[in-house]
Amino acid sequence: MCEDDIHPGLIVDPTVSRRTFGLTVAAVAGIAGAAQATTPVVSRDVDIKTADGVADAVVFHPEGKGPWPAVLIWPDIVSLRPVFREMGRRLAAEGYVVLVPNLYYRTRRAPVVESTFDFANADDRAKLMALRKTVTPDATERDAKTYLAYLDAQPQVDKRRKVGVQGYCMGGALSIITAATVPNRIGAVASFHGGGLATDKPDSPHLLLAKTKAEYLILWAKNDDDKDPNEKVRLKAAMDAAKRPAKIEVYPAAHGWCVKGSQVYDEAQAERAWAELLALYKRTLK
């Protein structure tokens, strides 16, 4: 999941402001000719008691009583920061209750990186990879159960409808684990430039697909695919064997293209991926 050698030269600025992100969204909406007003969104920072401690997270939902379907967002390797808050807010404006947790709550509260982070810097990389090791498959299963229970306890959530889960970078694998952990609740899984989805390891996420009941959207980065062109083939074979509907596509963009603040952010391809995500949720979260 997001190994060291896919990142050299990738610089991430986790301090991207909400205003900057909002202006980008507005500009894209203007280009697309969108005329509808932005839906007011309520947000609150929350602490969620887990089996391993207290997870800091943020939850978003449209103004009003709802209810709306729920979505869990697993952030990328740099975890919860302003850009993922804006993703959560933007998705909530589409009519969802959205939870975005801090991956590394067992070690420290978010943001875990407060200044520009360079994966080419050995010291920066070592600090982050040490945090990454705290997010094990077993820990993810425990967290997934807790986060889904938390969402279902919110009065704004429509518990009659399936839940969506989406992940970026290492969050792609976490999303598949979530779908296998709470299969009766997860109706859709989306992975954006995910890593380690179909490996030769005994705990590879693709081995869990038969336990899931979701529809999948797997969007690969070109440089991830160049590194291992057969991974998408293995994943597709596993999807077919598990009889899971899935769209698996390699985008003409680099690992991290969906996340504003990274050096490889690609606005056009990020918006294309966002449109596919919304279509998936509209179709499946019933």
UniProtKB/TrEMBL annotation:
Residue stretches making up the Dienelactone hydrolase domain: 56-283
Domain of life, source organism: Bacteria
Coiled coil spans: none
GO function term, MF aspect, one: hydrolase activity
A Pfam family recorded for this sequence: DLH
PANTHER family cross-referenced by the UniProt entry: CARBOXYMETHYLENEBUTENOLIDASE HOMOLOG (PTHR46623:SF10), CARBOXYMETHYLENEBUTENOLIDASE-RELATED (PTHR46623)
Protein name listed in UniProt: Dienelactone hydrolase
Organism: Caulobacter mirabilis
Lineage: Bacteria, Pseudomonadati, Pseudomonadota, Alphaproteobacteria, Caulobacterales
